[in-house]
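re the bet — no i am not wrong, look at it urself. input seq straight from the record:
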Amino acid sequence: MNVRRSAAALAASAVLCVGAAPAALADTPPPAPSAPPVVPSGLFGKADPSYDGVWRQSFALLAQQTVGEKPAPQAVDWLTGQQCANGGFASFRADATKACDATTVFDTNATAVAVQALKALGGKDAQVKKAVDWLKSVQNEDGGWAYVPGSPSEGSSTSIVISALAVAGEKPAEVKSKAGKSAYDGLLSFQLGCSAEPASDRGAFGYQPADGKLAANADATAAAVLAGLGKGTLVEPATTDTPAAALPCPAGAADPAAAAQAAAGYLAEALKKDGHLTAVTPGADQPTADTGNTADAVIALAATGHRQAASGALEWLKNNSASWSNRNPAALATLVLTAHATGTDPKAFGGVDLVAALNATGPAPQQPDAEAQKVENKGDKSSSGNQNLWWIIGAGAAAGMGIGILLSGRRKKNEL
């Protein structure tokens, strides 16, 4: 679990604890913690889905679709069944037959990634529109979003929502709050500018201000790169390579794309030290490798066309991500998307078949229809026969006319 989901879990816990405050102050002991919910058969992963059920399902379905797999109907149905009538998603609803109400803790992050997955799957326009409309309805006055609607905006959630809006066909610059602030106004307010200290943090994005000051946050920065470019987590591999650059100072006019490039420059520089990002986990006093945010950073650098800047971290992920991603559908899906963004084979990622490992954590994808496959094969044979016939005719004509003929074979479309 990366910082994004840890923060989400803490935020949800905080909201739930507010409602439980009177009980905590009573003289009677608090009730024993309830057992974790039973993991539904259509859901990927076996761990407690309370805080990341929709998140990991969305990533798993998006990754399967990206590599040409057709997700199982029950897996897709589970995700669509989690959507509330107003269009929003909670992190997880154990009983989806029960209508969402005032006690439902909605999750902008889960809703945003569900939008990306459902858009990629196709045929879910109604669900996507409802989710997008809900996201617009919970935009804060400053133009940004919080993980839990009604809370102060933060960099990560604002970025994730903007990516979802862009993927759904919206123009983030035109999505404005009641106060007239656009989604990009909200996003750019989290970037550390030319006055930030240390200077190495300039260009990064922060999560939320502490005592009025923003601190560089790798998770928020990687997400902001995609948001600034108007892209989602599914990034097509770049065909060219450009060097990453730091935030130019003095900075020019506020521009989302330029902000994304500056954020990518920060990530590229941060990766140089160890070849990966680090973070201090709760209870620890020393930083450890942050595999999740390293993968996010590689995707961000690929999106900005900085292939060389991402190469070292990509190799580190190939050699060091196995334990982090073991039986973890969200992690495996993130690595599949990392491989796709960098033009790497996800079925041979550091000796691991990420696609097979992901499929093993949930409902098996659909197999190609046997009858359709027969028709396709028959069509290939017929086409080949026709090609042979025309080759003979063409060769005879060429011999008679003294003209050489250049023959080319059919090219098969590469499956992603």
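see?? The chain has 16 helices and two strands. told u. also Residues 9-28, 380-416 have pLDDT under 50 and may be disordered. so pay up
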